[in-house]
Amino acid sequence: MRQRITFLQEPQDSLDPKLLEVTSDSISTKELKAAREDRVTFGFDELPQELYRVLKASHELHIRWVSPNNYNTIAPLVSRLSPGLHLFYTPQRNNNGSNLLCPMLKKVFGDLDCQSPEKSFTTLPVERFALSAATQYYQPLESLHDLVEYGQHKLCQSSDQECLSRISSLLDASSVDIDFDTISHALTITAFWPPQTRHLSVKNTIKNTRLEVGILSVESPKEPEELSLGGFLTVVGEDTKPSPTLFSFPARHHPTGSTFSASFLTPTGMHPTLELGISSSRPPTEERSCSLHAHLTLPRAIFVDKYQLSDQLLLASKNLSAVHYITTPVDLEAPAYAMTLWGSSVLVELAPPSSGAEQPWTEQPWTAAIPLHLRYLPPTSSTSGQSPLHIPYPVVFWACVADEGSKFPINPFDRVNLGYDGLFGPKTMFYHLPPEGDTLINTITVPVLDLDKSKYVELGTAGVVLLGFLWVGWCLWRVWSRNPYGSGANKVAKEKKKQ
Amino acid sequence: MLKFFSSPILVFSSAIVLRVVLFFYGLWQDANSPMKYTDIDYYVFTDAARFTARGYSPYDRETYRYTPLLAWMLLPTTWSATWFSFGKVLFAIGDIVAGWLIVLVLQASSKMSTERALKFASIWLLNPMVATISTRGSSEGLLGVMVIALLWAIMKKRIYVAGLLLGLGVHFKIYPFIYAPSIIWWLDDEQVGSRKSGSSTKTDIVSQIKNFCNGSRIKITVTSLLTFIILNTLMYSIYGWPFLQHTYLHHVTRLDHRHNFSPYNTLLYLNSSAPGTSLIPLESVAFIPQLFLSAFALPLMLAKKDLPSTMLAQTFAFVSFNKVCTSQYFLWYMVFLPFYLPNSSLLARKYLGIAAASLWVAAQALWLQQGFELEFLGKSTFVPGLWLASILFFLTNIWILGIIVSDVGSGPRPLRVK
């Protein structure tokens, strides 16, 4: 097991290293204003048997959980995903062990609507970017209670207070990543807590494990695509005092000055429109070509009609430019209760309004609207025919083409497999717009059949259809009793004869 | 006004001008507004045609649920942006041809004057709903011309042509199969005029069956079946399982949850969301009253009295009792109205006609209003609103169907001259 704990500070909050107390198995200080990232790497032999069996069947598995409560990020950890539980998964070739995945996920995360990768997962485009996984799954998940319980039970000794409290601190984390791939043969858990003033005290209670603690803040970089970090690193148990460090690396994810809001226009009806409010249309950098995108993660009850969004006039009227990616397939007709796939994700390029020729952008806030459609949801009772539907915020970012030469070598804080990064070229830089609002979930109500009023529907329909059938039958019988089968002409002729 | 209907040129050029105006208005609206005039289905057809043009299957386009013939017909729409509207022109021409055939059938079968025939054909030709549907690019009008051509061929005793059209129609949209029993029943010796002397006197079953199987009946059965089988074999050999799945099986297995005019709609939503909880599997027995009336009882009782009006009654019954019902289906029976109305009590008794028409419109308006509240205001109007509206619409349809049955049953009405 290896541990890396990083505290990230704003330059003005930088800690005086003299205030750090380093002992043979711990590091502590009274007060520290910083965000925290914990990264714990487990070897295969340190994992519970049941987890190992599932991972053995995976080529790669990336789990991303994001809290529904809004939080602040700090460079270099600025990348975002929609709140909820995301899963990016490539099964091992020629292995049928992937049917263990869903039961395992349910055991770890609680009651997920996951039947099997074949039934519940959607496929991702694979040809574009080697770093992205083959399939995707998502489910809204508000808290990691079940994960914490599972971890405490399976990973900690019941007497190890440090272990128990470290795991239960995941309940306050804003995002948790779990990564596994066959090449590294290791499982990494990365958790992020947003900036706040905290008491620092880390102990290394397990022998023969490496614990590295860094306290870093952002320095001004030399190159625009680079991030520069300076501060102190301490390997607990080896170092007797923190050693200063300064390093730069080309970064994939960057912060920006503008923000976005996401809300639904009312009334939402069966065709809700998601309105994105962007605080400014100013691109993050003028040296590269950048485009603004929204990446939507839509649970199966709501979807985008790609055919509707192929019309240029409609797109332009909503300040959209193009739909670059949408999960295939997206059934355009099926009710939600007849589907097993988790839903769909969509990448839409937004079209910022330009104010004039000399300045192609404006500092004015503006909006873009994404038309969506609802599926029918199961009928309900005692809700007056309305069902709530929780829809996570999208993520909004500028995607800028990086210099020809610049690559993103694996940097210690890089983050990939976010669902949208694989839809761009490997040299793309992402400038993330932080969302506004406390909760990153929009809740709308969907009209459904009210079971309280539907008791008479079955008998009523049957009765009316029967009545209609009998009425037509009666009319036919009257016709038949007067003149069976034959043509009217015959009858007229006969009547004429009689006369 | 009197003059207007006496001139075929005036009536037909008005019908054409109506469609040309709507066609160009549609092009203008599509080019200038995010709200499209063109029907969503037209984009489905043309996308499918594009797939076909590139050598792919039309079923690669999601929600393409038609015969590949339609995609083939619309291949010119893939040539250029101008040709994109070719399909609408084709459908509109189909309308006009159907109108012309209506006139021919009226003149031939009802011995109607040209003026009177044109007046009744105008119910189709000058109907803004019909013209709008075809210029928006909905293919339902093609069905109209197919079934009217079928009727015309039968009336002209062009049995092989009729068989071909019947097979084609069923291949295209399934429902025209209900016309097979009425046409076959109608084609008796009296119509065919080939009664062999003495053959009708025998009453044992064998000779009755022999008697029933006259040449025309055999000819049309064989021709239509052959056409149907050849077309389906051809399409299956090219496009395989997706052809069967999307063109035919889909209509059996579909879960029609989205609200529509059918009386079964709410029940289908209820039962599909919780399978196995209903007392009777109503949605699977729903076809019994529908097919009993439209494919058996109505043809048997009425076909020999008045074939065109019987076809109206059958279509009306089929659409009213169907598990899915949208306003495009109304075109299926509207095309037969010119044959029925001249002898109908709906025209003879003014108030009855007005009452029927207003009820038919009012029930739809109620339904549309409830549907609007659901779709755009998000109100749960499934029950009682939409359900009651669809039940009212069904009852109205059934009441009108009863009137049609009685009218056709009582034979040609003596002309009342005012």
TrEMBL record, chain A:
It is a single-pass membrane protein; Single-pass type III membrane protein. It is found in: Endoplasmic reticulum membrane. Pathway: Glycolipid biosynthesis; glycosylphosphatidylinositol-anchor biosynthesis. GO terms for biological process: GPI anchor biosynthetic process. Pfam families: PIG-X. The keyword Transcription regulation does not apply. GO terms for cellular component: endoplasmic reticulum membrane; glycosylphosphatidylinositol-mannosyltransferase I complex. GO terms for molecular function: mannosyltransferase activity. InterPro entries: Pbn1, PIG-X/PBN1. The chain crosses the membrane at residues 456-477. SMART domains: PIG-X (SM00780). Keywords: Endoplasmic reticulum, Glycoprotein, GPI-anchor biosynthesis, Membrane, Transmembrane, Transmembrane helix. Required for proper folding and/or the stability of a subset of proteins in the endoplasmic reticulum. Component of glycosylphosphatidylinositol-mannosyltransferase 1 which transfers the first of the 4 mannoses in the GPI-anchor precursors during GPI-anchor biosynthesis. Probably acts by stabilizing the mannosyltransferase GPI14. Belongs to the PIGX family. This is Protein PBN1. It comes from Amorphotheca resinae ATCC 22711.
From TrEMBL, chain B:
GO terms for molecular function: alpha-1,4-mannosyltransferase activity; GPI mannosyltransferase activity. Belongs to the PIGM family. It comes from the Eukaryota. Coiled coil: none annotated. The keyword Glycosyltransferase applies. The keyword Mitochondrion does not apply. The chain crosses the membrane at residues 9-28, 83-106, 161-187, 220-239, 285-303, 315-339, 351-369, 381-405. Mannosyltransferase involved in glycosylphosphatidylinositol-anchor biosynthesis. Transfers the first alpha-1,4-mannose to GlcN-acyl-PI during GPI precursor assembly. Required for cell wall integrity. InterPro entries: PIG-M. GO terms for biological process: GPI anchor biosynthetic process. It is a multi-pass membrane protein. It comes from Amorphotheca resinae ATCC 22711. GO terms for cellular component: endoplasmic reticulum membrane; glycosylphosphatidylinositol-mannosyltransferase I complex. It is found in: Endoplasmic reticulum membrane. Pathway: Glycolipid biosynthesis; glycosylphosphatidylinositol-anchor biosynthesis. This is GPI mannosyltransferase 1. Keywords: Endoplasmic reticulum, Glycosyltransferase, GPI-anchor biosynthesis, Membrane, Transferase, Transmembrane, Transmembrane helix.
